[in-house]
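Predict the 3D structure for this chain.
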Amino acid sequence: MMNTPAAPAANTTPLQARPLRLSTQQPDFEAQFAQRLHWSAEADAAIEQRVHEIVADVRARGDAAVLDCTRRFDRLHAPSMAALELQPAELQAAFEQLPAAQREALLQAAARVRRYHEAQLRACGQSWSYRDADGSLLGQKVTPLERVGIYVPGGRAAYPSSVLMNAIPAQVAGVAEIVMVVPTPDGTKNPLVLAAAHVAGVTRAFTIGGAQAVAALAYGTQSIPRVDKITGPGNAYVASAKKHVFGQVGIDMIAGPSEILVLADGSTPPDWVAMDLFSQAEHDELAQSILLSPDAAYLDAVQAAIDRLLPEMPRAAIIAASLNGRGALIQTRNLEEACALSNRIAPEHLELACREPQRWEPLLLHAGAIFMGAYTSESLGDYCAGPNHVLPTAGTARFSSPLGVYDFQKRSSLIEVSAAGAQTLGRIASVLAHGEGLQAHARAAEMRLQG
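Done. Predicted structure below.
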């Protein structure tokens, strides 16, 4: 999932978006491909230092530090933390006052997200055990985290969908308390965000943001309870703060700029694919949108669609900067090669804009989410398809997964060895413990041997 986007820039001059055009058959492809993929996750040293100071201050002074930061950064002057806590009645009122179409869309999206994560719970979130022939019980006990914190971007970047995607799987997992923090610069509250918190079952909500909110959740203050895990996207300060407090609490991931990779066989209308590339490029000038296709004429058609559609976009300047700086249209020898390139990229969002997506999906090993077929736009996944939109970025899909029910659970191993089982296991453990030079371990096992 993306960090919070920059504000739309004024489009006062004609803009051009020219993603880098490459072919896998050109001699310098590897060098240019690697350069286009390059992105450094290193935070600015000044940001790191400032975040370190904020986190330390909140840890030391609690509420007073959070109130000071909220006054400085959000220009919100509150006499106490109580004034910054959103009451359930306010969340419910925000929901009830939404236009009917927004209320219905929010409820439908929430229902689909809940249904998907309930299926996930049934598939992988249950305790289990079995007994050996000697009567020993072995298993796994799955229990929910007790309290989690969800960070929701605020101000210019307000994401009710992020509320649903973070709070609902936590609730489905059985988390007892979900604490939401959302910045409200100048006191401006987004009614859709508040309504989403009501629909998603948020327990408590505070109008604070930035590194100070992350620190408050991680360490607890006089008013904000300490949580077990923090999830949700944010800006560079939020990402840095999550790194600082990791180990004190769990975190979901450190989100980089948004990414989309489209594999196309030429059968999807070029305008659709161009707009799908825009959908991620509009987040951030550092977002990455890449199209892979073996059809050179199709790549030309998508570029023509980009040229035609860009002037219509309110965030045209950000889209152009993203496509010019990090975008690419790449001609491959065939779709097999496109799949191999996709595995090297390990994108956050991967669209199979093909006639036979089921044919190619087995070849795709690394992706946050795979969108199959021409009608499956990435934006449907962002809002209402059901699977989570908090996804690994910057190639981390090679080893990590979308946010899910499992992120709000922990597992305890269950071991109950019978008297008969101890005779077998004790001898094995004794030999291995002596081999490691740990005599007490060996003796503990040997004492239970009979005869």
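The CA atoms of residues 272 and 374 lie 8 Å apart.
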